[in-house]
From TrEMBL:
Residues 1-89 form the Cytochrome c domain. This is Cytochrome C. InterPro entries: Cyt_c-like_dom, Cyt_c-like_dom_sf, Cytochrome_c_Oxidase_Subunit. The keyword Nucleotide-binding does not apply. Keywords: Electron transport, Heme, Iron, Metal-binding, Transport. PANTHER family: CBB3-TYPE CYTOCHROME C OXIDASE SUBUNIT FIXP (PTHR33751), CYTOCHROME C4 (PTHR33751:SF9).
Amino acid sequence: MLICASVPAFAQQADYQNLLNMCKACHGETGESQFSSIPSLKYQNADYLSAQLAAFKSGQRPDKTMSKVAALLSEKDMQQMAKYFSEGKGK
């Protein structure tokens, strides 16, 4: 998903929030997964998380779910999500 400069900021934020909600559905609101088969992301290093998302997107790290999800993300989305989970945000 490429967000261009002509898209209003509120629309960009809504797109990001929808993508983040998709991540939270599996990895948990704060990144603490409730499922043993899904890794927890809470407090992981942001650079590491960004690199893993890029690897899923490029196909370097194939996964039937994460490769599809990462394909939707821009580089900025990846950085924002990595920051969100690395800081342990959420309720």
